[in-house]
Amino acid sequence: MTQEINLAFINSASQEDFTQLLAEIYEHSSWIPNQAWLQRPFDSIESLHQTMLKIVEDATLEQQLALLRAHPQLAGKEAKSGELTDSSTEEQSSANLNALSREELDEITALNKQYMDAHGFPFIIAVKNHNKAGIFNEFKRRISLATNDELHQAIWQVGLIAGFRLSALFPEYDNTTGN
Q1: Which of the chain's termini has less CB crowding within 10 Å, N or C?
Q2: Percent helix, strand, coil in the chain (nearest 5)?
Q3: Whole-angstrom Cα distance, residue 85 to residue 115?
Q4: pLDDT band for position 3 (50/70/90)?
Q5: Residues 6 or more apart in contact with residue 118 via CB below 8 angstroms
Q6: DSSP characters over 88-124
Q7: Would you list the domain boundaries of the chain?
């Protein structure tokens, strides 16, 4: 018998089951849902989302940087080698980043390197809010931001991505606008 995954289920789940179910809401950062479990019960998926956003906001700089560094580069080595999480694969594919021309691939490879050299973490964008041209434009714009400003922007983008992933896991939670 398969258990329906809904708010009642996550509110009654063990810490291990809760963490495992929500582990990929934040890329390779199960510490976030693990901490969120302590604040159950949630009255809505939105309150769960807000709780996890607050955990990230209150995290140490080292934890925030680890969260950002857990994300793959766009169309980077993880995508080329098939090592992306299912969520990242779907997200990058939705913006056609899996079908770049040779010229686009060379450009995004150079942008990934420039960004990483400038900020020390990968460029993160909620690709579901953008088309391929918009992603390239944001990439170019954000490379030159001050690292502290870009850190806040990247954390904001991670929160948007988390909302999209929660919407995929809990269809009754409509956060498809990324708000």
Answers
A1: N
A2: 65, 0, 35
A3: 22
A4: low
A5: 143, 144, 147, 150
A6: HHHHHHHTTTTS--HHHHHHHHHHHHHHHHHHSS---
A7: 8-179
Cα gap 141→135, rounded to integer Å: 10
Distance CA 59, CA 106 (A): 35
Pull the structure tokens for residue 25.
């809401």
Buried b or exposed e, range 122-157, using 16+ CB within 10 angstroms: bbbbbbbbbebeebbebbeebbeeeeeebbebbbeb
Task: Quickly name the fold that domain 8-179 has.
Answer: UraD-like (1.10.3330)
Residue given tokens 């931001």 in the structure block:
145
- Give the C-alpha separation, 31 to 45, whole Å: 18
Structure confidence by residue, pLDDT tens digits, 46-104: 999 999 999 999 999 999 999 999 987 776 554 454 554 565 556 656 556 667 788 98
Does 119 participate in catalysis according to the annotation?
no
Q: Which of 28, 49, 71, 130 is catalytic?
A: 71
